[in-house]
Amino acid sequence: MLEEQARGLLEDRRAGLKEGDILTGTVRSLMPYGAFVDLGGIDGLLHISDMAHTRINKAEDVVAVGQQIQVRILKIDPETKKLSLGLKQLQPEPWATVPERFKAGQRVSGTVTRLQDFGAFVEIEPGVEGLIHISEMSWGKKIRHPKDVLKQGDRVDAVILAIKPEERRIGLGLKQTLADPWTEVRLNFPEGSQVEGPVTRMEKFGAFVQIADGVEGLVHVSEIVADRRLNHPSDVLRAGQVVQALVLAIDTEKRQIKLSMKQLIPTSIDEYIAEHKAGDKVSGRVVEADAAHATVELGEGIRAQCRLAAATATAASDAEKPEGKADLSSLSSLLSARWKGNAPAPAAAPESLAQGQIRSFKIVKLDAAAKKIEVELI
User: In whole angstroms, what separates CA 280 from the centre of its chain?
Assistant: First the structure.
């Protein structure tokens, strides 16, 4: 009769319970997934995920056997009458005031709680985690996995990039706490300067060279060597090889630097210009010619431009003539000078220079920067 009476009282007590009720109970036992709480003869399960707003690994980190705690009834199974209890639901919700306490651009500190392939989760305060995406861990170094930079339990500083309280998400940046090396790229590596660094990676279109910590430049496949066409940078380069290059262009907004290796390698025309001076007499083979100009090959791969004297004289004569009237005195002087051998005959270029001819020339101009040579026929 006593047992029957006790069961009746228990059923009455159970029937009087409803979801949302706050009760005081005693922790009866601990399990890997939570704790069982005695609510006066009625047991309920306090799952580990409902013990605290923070991420916990073991129930004993929060409660102990015999401890009296207040819990909220979260759910009552209508068939089994089992109770699901919550402890964290009686504590202030940390995300409720996140928009007031945290702003984008704010610097925060936190502990790395877990690592995933795409990034690291950092607890910046109890119950509030943010994500440092793998792309926000370094300015220039390519990181394959967050464990290359961080490990669980690390204490780190980060900058808040974005807050979405409705999704309980905070985006964090680790690299933003470090100086951005690209802010001084133009100052440290101006266009036309020479740089040196290892080849970090290669693609079909070119090779990337690290010229400073967090700063890479691209040597296009066409700018690696000058003497032949490459199918792939690996034809002449290898990863880790230290190379020298010339800075061609810088785009700080796109974080791109164009480099050239071949422009630091002396070419045959560079050597030719270095070994000659204006006024030198040289021999050359005519490769192209028209009425006014000719292209002369002075050596293998070395070409010069020649403005024919006849065309020059004709142009000068035409410029000196008054419009609409022939200058007979100038014509007489020109003919007299020609018969005395002091002026070239105004013959057409093909008559005086023809393709394939080998003739003597005088160097009139050497331009090392533009890699150009001008000669005249002698």
Answer: 50
